[in-house]
Predict the structure.
Amino acid sequence: MITIEQIKQNEAIRTYIEKEDEALIALGYTEHSFAHVGKVSETAGRILRALGYTEHEAELAEIAGYLHDIGNIVNRVEHAQSGAIMAFRILDNMGADPADIAVIINAIGNHDESTAVAGNAISAALILADKTDVRESRVRNPEETTFDIHDRVNYSVKRADLDICAEEREIRLALTIDTKICPVMEYFEIFLGRMKLCCSAAEKLGMRFRLSVNEQVLL
């Protein structure tokens, strides 16, 4: 079994994460470096642990979360698929079990909303962890006057809490948004597809996805 610590300490993986983020900086994208993949990794594992999945399944979700964006070094377009192929080669060379590799690359290959399908618990946890990482600190553009809608949406989010309520069978994302920076309608303009994907991912886990913005329940 390859562990999440081995993944984090692997120099090749660290290089790919650094370089894919540099590529996205050039395109003007929000942060996709160690802060993002680390948070997604931790959250994906936390979701499965809270719902009673095995420690092995939780660690597979953590690994998928840490590796999920490396395909951006190839191209932003279809980065989920290229990332899955890269992850296959990395994990195979590290001696990972084929069954574990299969689950991880399936999750990575299905995390982007344009082609995503939550086919199992690991992919569902990755989708939820990735799509709920919206926060002010992901914006790297220093000039508010030149923000695009993606910058405004992320910069407006002053707090984001993801709660896994196992007994109520709900996964709840509570956002605190500065509506002077971004009206709630703009949030939905960008994130409606992602929130619908979170609903389907939660259903795969036997849960319902709930979204509240400024204490108003919207989903």
Remarks:
- The beta strands are 157-165, 170-177, 208-213, 216-217.
